[in-house]
Amino acid sequence: MIDTHKAVMIGCGYVGAATVFALMQKGLFSEIALIDVDTSRAEGEAMDISHGVPFTGHTYIHAGTYEDVENADIVIITAGHNSKPDESRLDLTERNVAVMSEIIERINAHHFKGIILVVSNPVDILTYVAWSLSGLPVNQVIGSGTVLDSARLKYLIGSKLNVDPKSVHAFIIGEHGDSEFVVSSRANISGIPLRELCDPSTPNCISGFCNYLSELEDIAAQVKNDAYEIISRKGATYYGIAMAVTRICEAILKNEHSIMPVSSVMTGEYGIEDVALSVPQIIGARGIEGHIPYRLSMEEHSRLHHSAKILKDILEKLHIPLRKNKIK
Question: Which of residues 122, 143, 164 is at a domain's end?
Answer without folding.
Answer: 143
